[in-house]
Amino acid sequence: MISTSFSLSTSDPLHRLREPPPSRLHHHLHLHRRLRRRISLFPTSATTRQTTTTTPSTVKDPKTAIVIGGGLAGLSASTKLYSSGVPFLLLEASDGVGGRVRTDSVDGFLLDRGFQIFITAYPEAQKLLDYSSLNLKKFYSGAKVYFDGKFHVVADPVRHFWDAVGTLVNPIGTVVDKLLIGLTRIRVLQKSDEEIFYCSEVPIIELLRSWGFSESIIDRFFRPFFGGIFFDRELETTSRLFDFIFKSLALGDNTLPEKGIGEISNQLASKLPSDSIRLNSRVISIQIEKQKSAHWVSVKLENGEELRSETGVILAVEEPEAEKLLAGTLLVSDKRVKKPGRSTVCLYFSAEKAQIPSSDPVLYLNGSGKGIINNMFFATTVAPSYGPPGKALVSVSLIGLFNDVADDDLVAQVVRELSEWRAVEALLQDSKVPRAIN
Ligand SMILES: Cc1cc2nc3c(=O)[nH]c(=O)nc-3n(C[C@H](O)[C@H](O)[C@H](O)COP(=O)(O)OP(=O)(O)OC[C@H]3O[C@@H](n4cnc5c(N)ncnc54)[C@H](O)[C@@H]3O)c2cc1C
After folding, report:
1. 35 or 240: whose pLDDT is higher?
2. How far is C-alpha 394 from the geometric centre of its chain's CA atoms?
3. Which of its termini does the chain have fewer beta carbons within 10 Å around, N or C?
4. Which range is most confident: 10-19, 286-295, 392-401?
5. Ligand 1 pocket, 23 CB below 6 A?
6. Is the beta carbon of 331 within 6 A of some atom in ligand 1?
7. Cα(140) to centroid of ligand 1, in Å?
8. Average of pLDDT values for 390-394?
């Protein structure tokens, strides 16, 4: 049985990560599709530029493909090249692989770069990853929603049938809403992933209303839950992604790898030859060049080095960076008006484990419609390895960037709200533990 309140004291702010605007999930999934279309492994005459001015150093074998960006997209592409026997070199600007999927170790705590969940049903992940060595730790399949001063359970009716029955009359939606959730599960499970991604799309909010979900479940559950996944409480994200995530949640478990979300990236990288990955290697330009009948791609690094590849380049970086690198001769002009990127802020706090009254590995959602917290959870109740012995790690996520709010004010506001939730009884004691990144 899941308890419905908790208290916690003496929280120290560990870390606050402000994700920059381009971190909108659906935006990036979309980007990858667009990048696949845009990248020309074999330069065409339309995009070819005649030049004789540079004498670039080739990668050892000129047939070596160059992968730019060592996030999940670049690592997956490299894995595919490796298994296909295509020589490649992965260039990563930062000091480690993983991009947004990295974990920092700070004073014995594992701090993922933003709140992330690994859903085991992701089809590509099933192909690429060895789940058993990730030692995945499961979340409860459902959530506890803070509304009207109390927590109310929303449970997956298949995995937690009796919990779900017990929640039929709670205020997080009507009985009809809860039946509709069951029907949604059936509906998405009947669709293949191809059907999901190629069917007509509407904003999630329209989809939910068209199915007859009440405003109460939309505001109290869908906005914090799916809003938290897509950094989009307005639920303007495409219905295709809603269906895909709903299906993945129905088929798989919500988990965290024992050693942090970054272990997913580390595992992918560990299967690649170590000399095929170059860290601290920021690419600053890409040119497609031609001399007589020969084509190659020339890649310039920040340190002045130039590499050329006759096979081509896979560009797997964030959208603004991709646009910068492709600007000029390569960028296919995109005249669509872009919406501003979506952002999130994640704050970590530590507490004494003994002060956490709940041992349930559950996600807490803010369904109250008030305040700035969207969701929180005790990471160490999902994976005890996220904290040193005796300590608990508290992860709090906000939607938006809050650039105009000073860090201290933001922390104070979050702690105040957690106190109202009865999650933190005493305010911040000190802030000696540093922010790890950004
Ligand atoms: C806070 C947060 C929570 C999320 N939660 C989830 C979740 O729960 N479940 C889920 O499935 N997805 C989640 N996502 C989305 C997921 O993290 C991303 O879709 C995915 O990591 C994107 O991978 P990528 O390789 O495309 O890009 P990135 O991870 O951004 O990788 C791009 C890489 O390119 C490098 N790079 C950039 N410019 C250059 C250059 N010029 N030269 C060389 N290298 C360069 C960067 O350093 C970086 O390593 C979340 C994202 C965020 C931000």
Report:
1. 240
2. 18
3. N
4. 392-401
5. yes
6. no
7. 26
8. 92
Smallest Cα–Cα separation from 282: which of 245, 307, 248? 307
Query: Above 90 in pLDDT, residue 381?
Result: yes
Tell how far the Cα of 23 is from the centroid of ligand 1, in angstroms.
Answer: 8
Write the residue with the smallest CA distance to atom 37 of ligand 1: 317
Helices H, strands E: what count in the chain?
15, 21
SS3 149: coil
Distance 198 CA to ligand 1 centre (A): 24
| Cα gap 214→177, rounded to integer Å | 7
- Give the atom of ligand 1 at the shortest distance from the alpha carbon of 318: 30
Q: Are 331 and 325 in contact (CB under 8 A)?
A: no
* Helix, coil or strand: residue 363: strand
What does the pLDDT look like over 278-307, one tens digit per residue?
A: 999 999 999 888 887 788 899 999 999 999
Q: Which of 116-130, 216-230, 422-436 has the lowest mean pLDDT?
A: 422-436
Distance CA 112, CA 386 (A): 9
Long-range contacts, stretch 198-202, CB < 8 angstroms, 24+ apart: 199/240, 199/243, 201/238, 201/239, 201/240, 202/238, 202/239
- Per DSSP, helices labelled H in 115-233 are 123-128, 131-134, 161-166, 175-189, 193-198, 204-211, 215-217, 223-230
Q: Is 80 exceeded by the pLDDT of residue 58?
A: no
**The pLDDT of residue 426:** 37
Could you tell me which residue, 332 or 377, shows the higher pLDDT? 377
Instruction: Name the more confident of 344 and 419.
Output: 344
Is residue 151 a contact partner of residue 167, using CB atoms and an 8 Å limit? no
Q: What is the DSSP string of 282-339?
A: -EEEEEEEEETTEEEEEEEETTS-EEEESS-EEE-S-HHHHHHHHTTTTPPP--SPPP
**CB-ligand 1 contact for 22 (6 Å cutoff):** no
Distance 101 CA to ligand 1 centre (A): 6
Nearest ligand 1 atom to the CA of 324 is 41
The Cα–Cα gap between 79 and 75 comes to 6
Residue 338 has pLDDT above 60, yes or no: yes
Counting ligand 1 atoms within 8 A of each CB, the residue from 317, 343, 345 with the most, and so the one to mutate, is: 317
